[in-house]
Amino acid sequence: MRFFILLLAGCLGLATAAFAQPEADASRIVTLGGSVTETVYALGAGDQVVGVDDSSVYPADATQQPSVGYYRQLPAEGVLSLDPTLVLALDGTGPPAILDQLRSAGVRVEEIPDEPTVEGTKAKIRRIAALLGRTAQGEALIRQMDESLDKARALRQQATTTPRVLFIYARGTGTLNVAGRGSSAAAMIELAGGENAITGFAGYKPMTAEAVVAANPDVLLLLSRGLDSLGGVDGLLDQPGIALTEAGENRRVVAMDDLLMLGFGPRLGTAVIALTRKLHPELEAAATSASQGE
């Protein structure tokens, strides 16, 4: 009987080991996806990164690394030329056959989940931290993020409005999409105390003048590079339907850094605070009045 128990315990131990995610050889890391790169650097492992993708624009040190192209249209040759021991690939990296090719070449490839929620961001940080053997650093990042999110929550409670916000993804006048339900933009708008102006569909769809006028947002929200690609606020107001909205008439346009706004990485709390202030100008007015009254 004792032999049977010891045998069973040994089998269970082997099974547990088989399903465990062992710490990776992270001596040469290629990071694919801006929030993955940002997280690796925030964990203090930036000196182990040998390559990044084009969306990895933060921190500044990451932009000095060789780029292997955009993570959604990845060439295997560029990655393999860097001789990585570990590839951390944000969910959506592809095409899938490229990841299979990297694995076939003997490279460890770990796909990182990318759910645009607070809990999804924490899961992303914990997953990367565990793979790099930096669990304690990961928990410290999450605590810092929680503190910032608490500050953002306190700001929202002071706000007196719930603006209807239309997020426009722009890359020049030929590429204009608006964000519906379930998108990362919609999640950020909600976290910042706004209401997404588009509820009739999920994800992103091409912008039409009719949809913009029907949505009639109070605020137009864009990524900074997107607004620049249109020629600034004046260029945006020239787009079909925009000038006919409440936001267009009042020139209420908000722009934020691309990765900060949609990355859902370690700076999520900082991003929510910034967007909350931009969507609720009464907060700035109240702060100014308070400082003048002192």
Largest sheet: 6 strands, mixed
User: Per CATH, what is the topology of the largest domain?
Assistant: Rossmann fold
Distance between the termini: 79 Å
Going by CATH, what is the homologous superfamily of the largest domain? Nitrogenase molybdenum iron protein domain
CATH architecture of the largest domain: 3-Layer(aba) Sandwich
The radius of gyration is: 22 Å
Key features of this structure:
294 residues; alpha/beta; Rossmann fold; six-stranded mixed β-sheet; four-stranded parallel β-sheet; 14% strand; disordered N terminus
Structure, explained:
- There is one protein chain.
- This protein has helices at residues 2-19, 34-42, 76-80, 96-104, 118-131, 135-158, 184-191, 209-215, 224-229, 232-237, 246-250, 258-262, 268-279, 281-293; strands at 29-32, 49-51, 86-90, 108-112, 164-170, 176-179, 195-196, 204-206, 219-223, 253-256.
- By secondary structure, it is of the alpha/beta class.
- It folds into 2 domains: 24-144, Rossmann fold, CATH 3.40.50.1980; 160-279, 3-Layer(aba) Sandwich (Rossmann fold), CATH 3.40.50.
- The strands form 2 sheets. Strands 5, 6, 7, 8, 9 and 10 form a 6-stranded mixed β-sheet that branches. The protein has a 4-stranded parallel β-sheet with strand order 2-1-3-4, sandwiched between helices.
- Helix 4 links the parallel strand 3 and strand 4 (108-112).
